[in-house]
Amino acid sequence: MRSFSRRPLLVGPPALAVALATLAGLTAGCALDTSDGDAEPGSLAETASLDGASFTVGSKEFTEQLVLCQITGLALRSAGADVSEECGLQGSNTTRGALESGDIDMYWEYTGTAWINFLGHTEPIDDAAEQYASAASEDLEQNEIAWLTPAPANNTYAIVVKTSTAEELGVASLSDYAELVADDPGQASLCIASEFAGRDDGLPGLEEAYGFHVPDGDLATLAEGAIYNAVADNDPCNFGEAATTDGRIEALDLTVLTDDRSFFPVYNPALTVRASVLEEYPDLEGIFEAIAPALTDEVLQGLNARVDIDGEEPTDVARDWLQQEGFIG
Length: 329
Prior knowledge:
Elements: H1 14-31, H2 43-47, E1 54-58, H3 63-78, E2 82-86, H4 92-101, E3 106-110, H5 111-118, H6 128-143, E4 145-150, E5 157-162, H7 163-169, H8 174-183, E6 190-192, H9 194-198, H10 203-210, E7 219-221, H11 227-232, E8 239-243, H12 248-251, E9 254-256, E10 269-274, H13 275-280, H14 283-291, H15 297-308, H16 314-324
Parallel strand pairs: 1-2, 6-7, 6-8
Antiparallel strand pairs: 3-10, 4-10, 5-8, 5-9
Helix pairs in contact: 3-16, 5-6, 15-16
């Protein structure tokens, strides 16, 4: 039985924190993006019409969310809607708050995030379909937030390590990592993002589930996007927080440690919309009922890699994919 508890936000040593703050600033500065034009009608427009509708689409700040934000904006435009974007809002709480307040009309959220962080549960549901159904039902009833069709992709948390380092240290699972923390905490140095440090389904719960505690001197807080290269360079950490649909895991030859106690919840992304907006524009449901099933782990890894590895703009990546799938013209 898993349970979650919180602990205060932890940061790395002062000198390290200064250097990493620079990285964080650079990453945040690159995160914002805006769409660059209309989308011609494709298959989505054959069954849905949003003529006269006006929406504001939002997202969190990391790559996958920026791509999903652009996919959403272009899909809506192809069906006739007028769309503005607030892509790249900082963190889950900020983005969720924007939805609830009406500053944005919709964004893609993850089932595990909603279940643990917004709906206040301490135990995730292992079955993906049951987790989605429970989160959707409760969020609608309590908060008047509607969940549209979920994607099959599971963007769950993971701890990664450079493959050669994993072999050198003999670490393949999170249980192995817990033993390393106890035996040689310096080699178990860990990079995490600030949100992971404070989430019930992040480091506090992970430490409790596996029975370890990373010393403050071996723990550093980075911008989420900077962690992958930091781990690949073993500087300043040998291990780091990651998202399993991130394209940099394969590109940088990182290894995902096996979650042998099944700690991390399921995080299927789905578009969340205020119920009043969906009620006024029910064709939204059909549009994302078509798009979501196509967003598999492999698809998101590929789309994310085009941005993070190849340096393409999220807007261009989103447009190309929607056109390849025939969703827009």
